[in-house]
Design a protein that fits this description.
2 copies of one chain form a homodimer. Chain A is α/β, with parallel strands linked by helices. The first copy, chain A, has 2 domains: about 260 residues, Carbon-nitrogen hydrolase (Nitrilase/N-carbamoyl-D-aminoacid amidohydrolase); about 190 residues, Rossmann fold (3-Layer(aba) Sandwich), CATH 3.40.50. In chain A, the strands form 4 sheets. In chain A, strands 5-4-3-2-1-14 form a 6-stranded mixed sheet, with helices on one face. In chain A, helix 10 links the parallel strand 16 and strand 17. In chain A, helix 9 packs across helix 14. The longest helix of chain A is centred in the last third of the chain and has 23 residues. Chain A starts with a strand and ends in a 28-residue tail after the last helix. Chains A and B meet through helix 3, helix 7, helix 8, helix 11 and helix 12 of A and helix 3, helix 7, helix 8, helix 11 and helix 12 of B.
């Protein structure tokens, strides 16, 4: 059989555009003489519309689009992620208006829709609804009933949706035991470093345990901070990889299932993969929100250098402008490095000195401000000027903060946090260096080598205020990604006072993280939608 | 029986402090010769720790605290909201690190713990786990099994948790059919206007249908933007109100169940109730986050006047400072009104003129900026100066935006959105006027009467840019709270062009709402945690 994995990049809520995209892929598959074309989870609406599912008319419009897909399935099989709905009458908590407006009264099912030859063969609802990390599926969906198996072009096929592959004793096993030779899983699986290998290991195990061929069609594209990385693949009943689509790229990937031979899986480089995710994330954020220009505050330090280099990779030099905003404290070295970087990247860089404005702001306030208030003042003047330039040019600001500084609040709210998207706020500082070292043909070596500084007071160095980044990042990783307690961290050998200092900074900076732009996720636990922590709390582990 | 409703205001995560509070209330109940004392849902940890539940050691510390409560139940019955946990071994998606860190491998149950005479009588897990609006309970909890009934001091008692009362054919009905004479429901039920009446109607119906007495113990207190309003009550088997605790106040409320007589429910005034919620929300946000001072940018307009008046009501005059930040455009009338307000409220007000800084900022940017960029610049200079003053005084800024302007993006990100808490951002402009009119002994009449203006360009009036607020607010209410579509709005008689304009403004300002501080919720659908909408989307209803 000729089978096409349609690894597409729909836009959330753009149902008409997504329909056009899907129809064009069906047509391409038909022209390529494919028997079956498989689209990812929720391809019709993008992943995820979240509360837009509850807007009057949203699901109706999806269903109209799905009807068009049915009609287009003449002479071909089409599996596509969509929605089915059912009114229910159990009342629920219909006395509470906030529940009524949240879609009570209608059950929604996150489905794989299987069309063939102009008919709906079946809609297969998702059974396992993830509600951890970035997922909120139990907020919207009702779990589907048990497994089914279909015969298509002589093959016995089980179809399931994303998390249904991950659940032990779940739909995949059940469909195999009902006689499925093939399992087709449609996914919207977000990227983090190492995710591709985890998927392959899972797929290989499921295939071997059940003696089935596994077809995995994943979404691609950036959605706020969440990046779907594609990398759709096919696994043989012996657990070998038979086909591998590229990561971070939209495309129709066709294989002849009768002629497939085992291929060697390529190990993804962790930092290269993160770079691919960030580049796609920047590009899709701009494109899907209708912007074409970004502005970046270039300080001469490594964070802004990396963000600028990634932005140029995503958008091209013409789409990126830098602004160097020196204060009285900024060094000549910073200016030289900023301009050398801009030259390497072939981007415009303007100098907007802030010393006079700092003085004027201090003069405006009776008695002036000192200490941290004065340090923050400089960062906020920079934020204010960047926003003025961005507004004037209809550009978006990319925020340059990294995960280490965001975690300990070593940043200025409304200062360096200003922006529409935070591309590297899920990279620890040690990862920022690693990624920058891989781009040292464009990022000046001196920027990579110099000790980091916020340049908000004379001779300031990050490590005067913070633990060395190797130690800080190791603590933060256990704290954020593994939920380590104070005792866990001390038991793992970190110095008690350092742990206490880091925890204190981490807990008291939650309010700043609450006002960040979307953070591009490259780790199992990024700041933003996948991490829900109250601002007001007094837990101290 | 003497029964005490312990309507307490715990702090999220402050497990030791909450334990002390609970033990002191048990002791007070014992001294008052109560047989039974009932605390709200999740009283041990506060509602809700969200992802803190997954921090290593969090649940253990709750369980240690719960053990102390058991020991303190000597000679008295205690019902209190807490947690039980159970390791499970089904594997789940243990191959995905982001699921592992999110508590996979352990089931948590949101329980009513029933202690008596030093023993745990039972832990009753919640069955209905709300995952709409501000709730995310399916992210954390496993639903409990069926209903049980206990005999205590000769009474047959069914106990359940919050949403379990709201579900038709739910635990309340099941417990009644098992012979319960009393149903005790422990809740953490957030306020919105009219919620008290909705609860009473529900309780009355449940009581009558099942012939049971209903004891409803609700949490009180502010948690970021969510306000638990207390108002615990008791309903007779004929559906009459027997006891009503006050709203927005912590306390131990004792009744003799053998002597209770029907009382007339008091209708809450909608705006007065919202005012109570906002005042409690401001007070608790400051207290629980360890701050005692607020700063407010006072413009001479009604929004900042109302926020200042509410802040004084919450914190007292000494805790509130105003800053008047006139530009070249600001009128003398604005200055007079700002100062008259400050005088009425007995708060300090300093003038910090911004005209020179606006000019200096324009001069810093080659060619300067114009139009919207120039308007925003003024608002951002104000935000920057307010933050400098707030940092210097260790004060928090209260954001003065209302729901109408936040909904259509008629505000400046990092300008007037700056702040730690947005007290009136769930009040439509028409509600702002209504609340202000009720405070006209302190808010100058001229502030209430004058047409609203952002004063960012000469002779600007809100209604030059926006539809009249009566129409705008009516559209927004249907859109936000009822998920109305464009067609719905037009069918309800709103002008087509006005609807198009409002929808366009609403959709394109989502990025600003993504960076707001917590919004105090007074409606069924407030901006913030209870409304989850992607920034990147192209849905246009």
């Amino acid at each position: 059989m000729r089978l096409a994995l349609a690894q597409i990049d729909p836009t959330v809520g753009a149902i008409d555009d997504n329909l056009s995209l899907i129809l064009s892929y069906i047509e391409r598959a038909r022209r390529s003489k494919c028997d079956l074309v498989v689209f990812p989870e929720l391809a019709v609406c993008g992943y995820s519309p979240l509360d837009l599912f509850w807007q009057s008319g949203f699901v109706d419009r999806m269903q109209e689009a799905q009807e068009e897909i049915r009609k287009a399935s003449d002479g071909i099989g089409v599996i596509v992620g969509g929605i089915t709905s059912k009114r229910h009458h159990d009342g629920g908590n219909t006395s509470d208006p906030s529940s009524v407006s949240d879609g009570a009264g209608t059950d929604l099912f996150n489905c794989a829709l299987f069309f063939a030859d102009g008919s709906l063969v079946a809609s297969i609802p998702k059974l396992n609804l993830p509600t951890f990390d970035v997922y909120s599926e139990k907020r919207y969906f009702t779990p589907g009933p048990g497994a089914q198996v279909f015969t298509f072009r002589g093959k016995s096929i089980g179809i399931n949706v994303c998390e249904d592959l991950w659940a032990d004793d779940g739909p995949t096993d059940a469909q195999a035991s009902l006689g499925a030779e093939w399992i087709i899983n449609i996914s919207a699986s977000p990227f983090f470093i190492g995710k591709g290998e985890i998927r392959h290991a899972l797929a290989s195990r499921r295939a071997r345990e059940n003696g089935i061929s596994l077809f995995y069609a994943n979404l691609v594209g950036g959605q706020d901070g969440v990046i779907f990385d594609g990398g759709s693949f096919v696994t043989s009943p012996s657990g070998d990889l038979l086909y591998q689509a590229p990561y971070f790229v939209e495309g129709l990937f066709i294989m002849d299932t009768d002629r497939a031979e085992a291929i060697e899986p390529k190990q993804q480089d962790a930092i290269a993969a993160a770079r691919g995710a960030i580049v796609l994330g920047i590009r899709d954020y701009l494109r899907k929100n209708g912007f074409s220009q970004v502005i970046i505050g270039i300080s001469g330090g490594i964070d802004s250098a990396l963000v600028a280099a990634l932005a140029v990779e995503a958008l091209g030099s013409d789409a990126v402008s830098g602004v160097f905003l020196p204060s009285a404290i900024s060094s000549e070295e910073s200016r030289d490095d900023a301009h050398q970087l801009a030259k390497n990247l072939a981007i415009k860089l303007v100098d907007v000195p802030i010393a006079d404005l700092v003085a004027a702001s201090q003069a405006a306030i009776e008695g002036g401000v000192s200490g941290l208030a004065a340090e923050n003042l400089q960062a906020r003047i920079r934020g204010m000027l960047l926003m003025a330039l961005a507004n004037q040019k209809n550009a978006l600001i990319l925020t340059t903060g990294n995960k280490s500084e965001v975690a300990v609040g070593y940043n200025t709210l409304y200062g360096d946090t200003v922006g529409a998207l935070a591309p590297i706020a899920d990279l620890y500082k040690t990862q920022v260096w690693e990624m920058a070292r891989g781009m040292d043909s464009i990022i000046p070596q001196r920027i990579i080598d110099k000790p980091p500084t916020a340049e908000l007071r004379p001779d300031q160095k990050d490590e005067d205020d913070l633990p060395p980044y190797e130690i800080l990042d190791a603590i933060l990783k256990e704290l954020i990604e593994e939920n380590a307690s104070r005792d866990d961290l001390i038991a793992h050998g970190f110095p008690k006072l350092t742990v206490a200092d880091v925890l204190s900074r981490y807990y008291r900076s939650e309010y700043k993280r609450g006002q960040l732009p979307p953070v591009i996720k490259v780790s199992p636990k990024a700041f933003g939608i996948g991490r829900r922590v109250p601002i007001t709390h007094r837990y101290r582990s």
